[in-house]
């Protein structure tokens, strides 16, 4: 459930009229709903409330500091993949002791920063990274809490670009090597083994791949216990899918119940790293129709938002619902909704039944995750403004980028 609903023929974000916000702040524009973010975060937290757990929101999905702050106020932890994301968490008032640090290529300075801030755990992805982290921790006179990200080799059944748990993917440590690398971690003086983690992919709409991964991971945890290596937490990663079209992914409570059942009476804290499931349907992307154009066999709605603002349709052929901000009565036609960027791949949606005129606003639903965070300045397009609504109030949480900011830091030769 989200808080973007029609009242009569007009789309609202909570109690704010989307068309008014677009008029006032211009387009293209991202609008997020605080109530929806909170509701989605709580759905995870409540789903495991009886069991020791930590919900670490995946910052990469939407890293605006207002979004992070709203979640931090609920007590959220954060899953980060860079020093930049860690800095955002701190800037937003997040608690570093609830941060897990994922990612295959952590640099020495990122490790130092995270150690100095006292993060909860490093999710280590290779033997080489483990050795490096040990040296950095020893140099700082610290002990780094570590989990090893194990690649369980299960097929998440999602788009190949967002599937991460197969042997052929660059992520994690192969299951066959896991025990040896855990043994090594256990003997390094700069490290303290805390947990295991996995993340098999994103936008999963079935429970089975999660359970397959969990079975393999729990078997590993049991084997490690036999070797005297005690695992205190199991980080199940993120990946729970959302409804973009007619997908029916399991709700967080059903998903968590299935995991808890598998866990049995093991004394393991559970960590979740949801990104999309919290943020995607808490945001819309609003764009205005500039021109309508027809050729022999196609109609195009040329809009002011483009692949640089929202790349998911172009990059993954992702389908996101496109709806009119104010519905018109009358006949609709099939349109390709395309942006001004000079690429054939620049589209937000294809073959959409719409009744639109020039000047109309359209909203691309489910744009709160991997929308703004993946935006670029391609074609020297300043990045969109971001708003957050809270009831009947709307706040600018990021100003529209100014053209002069585009060449900030660039230099002309003497
Ligand atoms: N944890 C780790 C280690 C991850 O790599 C990811 C996402 C997450 C958690 C959060 O996954 P989520 O709950 O959001 O599925 N840009 C793509 C998605 C890339 C996901 C990358 N990793 C998209 O727009 O579909």
TrEMBL record:
Residue numbers binding substrate: 276, 312, 316, 343, 370
Annotated Gene3D superfamilies: Alanine racemase, Lyase, Ornithine Decarboxylase, Chain A, domain 1
Protein name from the UniProt record: Diaminopimelate decarboxylase
Protein family (similarity comment): Belongs to the Orn/Lys/Arg decarboxylase class-II family. LysA subfamily.
HAMAP family noted in UniProt: LysA (MF_02120)
Pathway: Amino-acid biosynthesis; L-lysine biosynthesis via DAP pathway; L-lysine from DL-2,6-diaminopimelate: step 1/1
Subunit organization: Homodimer.
Alphabetical list of PROSITE patterns matching this protein: ODR_DC_2_1, ODR_DC_2_2
EC number(s) per entry: 4.1.1.20
Alphabetically ordered keywords of this record: Amino-acid biosynthesis, Decarboxylase, Lyase, Lysine biosynthesis, Pyridoxal phosphate
Chemical reaction(s) catalysed: meso-2,6-diaminopimelate + H(+) = L-lysine + CO2
One GO biological process term: lysine biosynthetic process via diaminopimelate
Gene name of the encoded protein: lysA
Residue stretches spanning the membrane: none
Active-site residues annotated for this sequence: 342 (proton donor)
Binding residues for pyridoxal 5'-phosphate: 239, 273-276, 370
Residues with PTM N6-(pyridoxal phosphate)lysine: 60
Occurrences of domain Orn/DAP/Arg decarboxylase 2 N-terminal (ranges): 35-280
Record function comment: Specifically catalyzes the decarboxylation of meso-diaminopimelate (meso-DAP) to L-lysine.
Essential cofactor(s): pyridoxal 5'-phosphate
A molecular function GO annotation: diaminopimelate decarboxylase activity
């Amino acid at each position: 459930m989200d808080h973007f609903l029609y009242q009569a023929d007009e789309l609202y974000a909570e109690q704010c009229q989307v068309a008014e916000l677009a008029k006032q702040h211009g387009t293209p524009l991202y609008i997020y709903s605080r109530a929806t973010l909170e509701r989605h975060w709580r759905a995870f937290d409540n789903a495991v409330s009886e069991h020791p757990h930590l919900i670490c929101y995946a910052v990469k999905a939407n890293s605006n500091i207002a979004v992070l702050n709203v979640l931090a106020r609920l007590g959220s932890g954060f899953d980060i993949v860079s020093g930049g994301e860690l800095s955002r968490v701190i800037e937003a008032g997040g608690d570093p002791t609830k941060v897990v640090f994922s990612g295959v290529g952590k640099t020495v300075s990122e490790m130092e920063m995270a150690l100095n801030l006292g993060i909860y755990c490093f999710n280590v992805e290779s033997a080489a990274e483990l050795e490096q982290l040990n040296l950095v921790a020893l140099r700082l006179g610290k002990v780094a809490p570590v989990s090893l990200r194990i690649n369980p080799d299960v097929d998440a059944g999602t788009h190949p670009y967002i599937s991460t748990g197969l042997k052929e993917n660059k992520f994690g440590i192969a299951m066959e090597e896991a025990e040896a690398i855990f043994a090594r971690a256990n003997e390094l003086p700069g490290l303290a083994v805390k947990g295991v983690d996995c993340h098999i992919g994103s936008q999963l709409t079935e429970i089975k791949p999660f359970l397959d991964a969990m079975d393999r991971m729990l078997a590993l945890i049991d084997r490690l216990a036999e070797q005297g290596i005690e695992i205190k937490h199991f980080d199940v990663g993120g990946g729970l899918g959302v409804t973009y079209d007619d997908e029916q992914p399991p709700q967080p409570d059903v998903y968590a119940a299935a995991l808890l059942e598998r866990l049995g009476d093991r004394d393991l804290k559970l960590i979740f790293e949801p990104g999309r499931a919290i943020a995607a349907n808490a945001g819309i992307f609003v764009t205005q129709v500039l021109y309508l154009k027809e050729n022999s066999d196609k109609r195009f709605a040329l809009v002011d938002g483009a692949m640089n603002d929202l790349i998911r349709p172009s990059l993954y052929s992702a389908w996101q619902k496109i709806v009119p901000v104010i519905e018109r009565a009358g006949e609709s036609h099939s349109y390709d909704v395309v942006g001004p960027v000079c690429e054939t791949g620049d589209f937000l949606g294809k073959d959409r039944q719409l009744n639109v005129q020039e000047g109309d606003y359209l909203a691309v639903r489910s744009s709160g995750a991997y929308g703004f965070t993946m935006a670029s300045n391609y074609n020297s397009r300043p990045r969109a403004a971001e708003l957050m609504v809270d009831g009947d109030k709307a706040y600018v949480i990021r100003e529209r980028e100014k053209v002069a900011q585009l060449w900030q830091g660039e230099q002309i030769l003497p």
